Amino acid sequence: MRRLLLLVCFLVLTASAGDVQWRLSAENGLFIRESSESALLSRLSGRVLIRHRFSFARLQMQARLTPEWMNTPETLSTVKFSGKIQATGRLMRGNWRTFFLLNDYYYNRSETNPVFYKISRLGISYVHASGAGKTVDVSAEYAFRNWDTQPFNRTNLFRISSEFALTLPLHTKLGLSVTANHYEIHAQNRAGLHTGWQMGPGISFRHQNRFIMHYSLHYYRLFSSLSPTRQSTVFVRFLWGAFITKRLSAFVYVDYQRTRPVERTIPPEWRFTPFESENWSYLKLEYDVSAHFGLYGKGGYFKDILPDGNTIRSGVQFMAGLQLTK
Q1: Contact status, residue 274 vs residue 303, Cβ threshold 8 Å
Q2: Mind listing the pLDDT tens digit for each residue in 220-232?
Q3: Can you give the pTM of this predicted structure?
Q4: In 3-state terms, what secondary structure has residue 9?
Q5: Phi/psi-derived region of residue 71, left when phi > 0, alpha when psi is between -120 and 50, beta in every other case
Q6: What does the buried/exposed string (b/e) look like for 14-30 if buried means 16 or more CB atoms within 10 Å of the residue's CB?
C-alpha cells in the first residue's frame, strides 16, 4: 500500500511535466505451480516514465508497482516495486551515465511468515568511442540488499565491469565484457563477515532492424572462504520481437540464471546469491486495438528466488490482459 501511494503521488506531481509516459495493465489467468495445485492469478501493473532535458544532461525517472492476488482478491500474494533515476550526458568523445535503482519485494508466504527484502544500486559508467564503430564501456557500482525477515542479513556488493563493443554491418553490435564483484554479508545472528569474490566474462549480441533481438551470456566463478567448491553462475538474457501484422506483434523473453552447486552446508544467512532474483521465459502476443489501448496474451515459465537460494514460487502461467498507454 505504501508503494501504491508513492506511485500515485509521483503521477500527480509529474502530470504537468513535458515528456511523461505511463502504462496501466491488468491481467488474469492460470498459474500451474510446481509445488502444489493450480491457482487463479490476477496481476495489476502501473508504470510511469519521465524524461527531461537540461543544457548539460538528460534526466530520466521511472517507477513501477506490480501487486498480485492468488485465488482470492482479499489478500495480496506478491507486491513488487521498482524505481530508477538516471542522468546521462556528453564528455569529450564519450557519454557518461549515473544511476540509482531501488527494488522492493514482498511475498505473502504465510500470515505469520511473510518475506520482505529490498535492493538498492548506485553506479556510474563512461562509454568512450574509439572510432570505426568501437566503444569501451567502464562502470562501477555499489549495491545493497537488506533482508528484513528471517534469516535477517545484509549484503554489500562492489562491482567493476568493462565491455568492448564493435558495431557490425546489418544494424548489429557485438560486445565482450569482464566483471568482478566483491561482496560482504552481515548476518544478524552471527558474528563476523562472510566475504568473497565473483568474477567472469560475458558476451552480448544486439540486432535491430526488421526485428529486434538482444542476447547476452555471462559466466561467473565464486571464490569464498566458506565454500569448499567453486560455485559457478550462468546468466542468460534473450529478447526477440517483431510485428506479424500492422497491429499484431510477438515477443519472446528469457531471463535465466543458474548457480551450481548450491552450498546447503553454508548457513542460509551467509549464502551469497545473485541480486537478480526473477527468472522467466515466455511468449507474448500483443494486439493494438488503438494507439493507446491493446490486448495481449502470454504464457511461459516463471520462478522467483529468495536471497538464501531457495525458490519462493515457480510454475507455468497462462495470462490474458489489457493495457492502456500514453
Answers
A1: no
A2: 999 988 877 788 9
A3: 0.89
A4: helix
A5: left
A6: beeeeebebbebebebe
